[in-house]
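Good morning,

Both structures are done.
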Amino acid sequence: MTSPDGMNWTSQRSASQAEWRSIMYGNGIFVAVANGGMDDNHVMTSPNGINWTMQESPPEIDNWNSVTFGMEKFVAIGANTEEGETAMTSPNGMDWTLATTTPLGTWSSVTYGNGIFVAVDLFGMSGNQVMTSPNGISWTTHASPVAGWFSVAYGMDLFVAVAYLGEGTNLVMTSPNGMNWTIHQSATIAAWTSVTYAEAEQIFVAVAGGGVGTNLVMTSPNGMNWTIQESAAAAQWISVTYSNGTLVAVSLDGKVMTSQSS
């Protein structure tokens, strides 16, 4: 679906029936990746968000979870196979090359900032739940606090990750370089699913897919100190993004909520 303002939405047809997990815009094109689907291709592209074209993706992997754009290339990550091939790169969203990552894990989110790609892992319990890459091809794992890290974002010269599950409120971690991480307290215990940075407002915003009542949004001016905010509805909020002064969050059951700068 597309919207010119985050409030009025139009349903659009995807290129294939699949579990589309992530979408990114870069170099004049939208790129979406899927986890599973009806065929062997798990990437689609669009010049306008309305008309979508299926693209051939590496047939070895069918579980892509996240895609980002940086250094004039798209980088996608997913769940590990026995071969460890859980990243792929493309200069244009159409031609993709596999990259090998270690260790085994379910890489849930990837972002780009300050010349480096950073990915976080959802189910790993070894404490090596972060990997970084200078180019999207060669990856290095790093020690991190143990939790179910679901989303990572970059802003204010800082990487910020939020967790879907963990111990108490130890559900946020930050890093200045993607390699050295510090745990922080979330505003409440909730299943935090997505975090983004609102550049004009200079604030991080996270949404949750589960929690108490409508306490499913939290904000932070620095990625470390968080304040709970009331969401527009009690829903399984799965993703939040920011553009042109508007925050937009979507839920698994088709709800959309927006917040605009004053």
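Second structure follows.
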Amino acid sequence: LERLYETCSIARRIADRWNVGRVIARPFVGTSRADFRRTPNRKDFAIPPPPGNLLDRADEGGRAILSLGKIGDIFRHRATGREIKGRDNDALIDALITEWPAMPDGAFAFVNLVDFDTDHGHRRDVAGYAAALEAFDARLPSLLACLRPDDLLLISADHGNDPTWRGTDHTRENAPIVGLVAGRRGADVGRRATFADIGQTVARHLGLQPVAKGVAFDPLSS
């Protein structure tokens, strides 16, 4: 495992000249195609994120930050606050439900639930993807129960990975945005021009300096 990390670290330095976003160590166990299984020891070697992103703004504002899953690796551990990794979606949701009630007002939690992508999307596992969505849906009541008045919850995806599509790569359908502000009526935020709108919405809701790009969802943040 350490040799794999070392090799990826070398590849990261080589790839810097081309501004390659990430070099990813994806360790697995097994002896044949039939029993290969990825382990939880994934590690992403990323380029530095652009300045002025949401994590930077939260850090500059002195906010408590909780990064769950591979968020720390993706943002090169810059302004990522406390980092917690977990073996799967359930472990990360457990961590969020456990940690959030103790976070101070104005805190920010950033969670990446990678099982949808890694275990089911790339593998074109339709039944597994459906089961993972149902499992997440079953956890939502517990997640909603730990929200405080005016807490903002946003659920989205940074890309598609349709398990019914050909091949094994990401797909390019529109990604959903589902959100709520605890204690307020929801509204349709329409089709957004950029994923950056999510960051701008969170920044505005938390009273942070604006991020570099994006327009806040007015129905959620005004």
